[in-house]
Amino acid sequence: xxxxxxxxxxxxxxxxxxxxxxxxxxxxxxxxxxxxxxxxxxxxxxxxxxxxxxxxxxxxxxxxxxxxxxxxxx
Length: 74
Fold this sequence. Notes:
Blueprint: H1 3-11, H2 41-54, H3 58-73
Helix pairs in contact: 2-3
């Protein structure tokens, strides 16, 4: 099917999901990229203490805190 036909079906409200390959679908700006960051030992101890208190992994705390800071900077 050509893009013009797909657009026409979508614009008319037809469910076009059967024509899409969702295995290749990606959310823009939501893909992950691994980065390495070195922290002083005292920070690791405090991060681990907070992670235990909240019963979450250390990585979750780091991601939430960084996201909060970045959202506040906008």
